[in-house]
Amino acid sequence: MESKYDRVDVPENLYLHSENEHNEDFGTGVYPISVISRKSNLKSDTVKVACFRMRRKSRCFLMIGGVIFLIIVILLIVVASNHNGSDKAPARVIEPSFAEEIKLKGLMFEPNVDNSPLIHYSIRDMKTYQKYLNQLDFYMYDYSAIHQQKSDYVNCVNESAPDGKACRLTAHDFGSHCTHINVYGYQEGRPCVLLMLKLDNDTTIDPFTSKDTEIKKRLHDRWSADHIGITCDGETALDREHMGHEDFWYENSVKQDDITYKPPTGFPIWSYPKKNPHYKVPAVMVHFNTVRTNHLVTIKCVAWAKSFNNGKPQDSKMYSVRFQFFME
Q1: Domain check: are 236 and 99 in the same one?
Q2: What is the pTM of this model?
Q3: Taking residues 189-217, what's their average pLDDT?
Q4: Which residues form a coiled coil (predicted)?
Q5: Which of 5, 121, 147, 262 would you label with 19, given CA atoms 20 to 30 Å apart?
Q6: pLDDT for the residue numbered 180
């Protein structure tokens, strides 16, 4: 007859051990609890273990489903953020193809941020061209009519300012489009650039005459006998092609000139030389209406006078300036 101490069945997944690593029951068939442990099941994985620790399998599935859903939401947010960022920020890092030397006089342009000839921005993202707007605002402040109300300024019409006076040159002379309110055209992809011509007081200014047919051909109806003419165009044939020398029609259905200049005749000769500390450097606002996007376009502007570089100012760094557009 078997007693309560008869040998017991041991589950298959249990293994027995003692301190001396022998499976001993000392003939009783009863094993101390301290020497019994469950065999590890190699087929179990982390998910199964977690599930069996829960009272109901449904809770496990809900937990896994929630985690998967959260991961999907996070991925969608990241993808959407990257997509929106690519629409706004310039997609490529564009480097200028040349380094324009720093100029303290001669023909200069703004916005010249960080002394770089490249104006690179995304039309869709104001953050990419805010620095250019700030630079233009800085220089336009000098030409504000409010700051030229003093008796130091006079209206000059075909004559130089008297000694001790300065010719009045205000932002009104730069036209109505290239203004702070209109974001200087950058939002439309029609950027404005301010050109300034700073000359030494002893610089001789001898303008081209009506007999200089080549210059009149360049300036067309903008030629003036008492002005230093200004032209801007693509530096190469490819640049000129990317300048959009073709019909461009805007929402108001009015054909725009490729480039407009304000004042159209250029820099008035009577504005030179400097005679007053409040002197305003003569300037022209150039409005580029048809530059194509996603192209690196090099622009070259020239101030035209017969006395500049022996009649060839286009070959002089003093009387010409280059800069580049890359709009996205």
Answers
A1: yes
A2: 0.69
A3: 92
A4: none
A5: 5
A6: 96
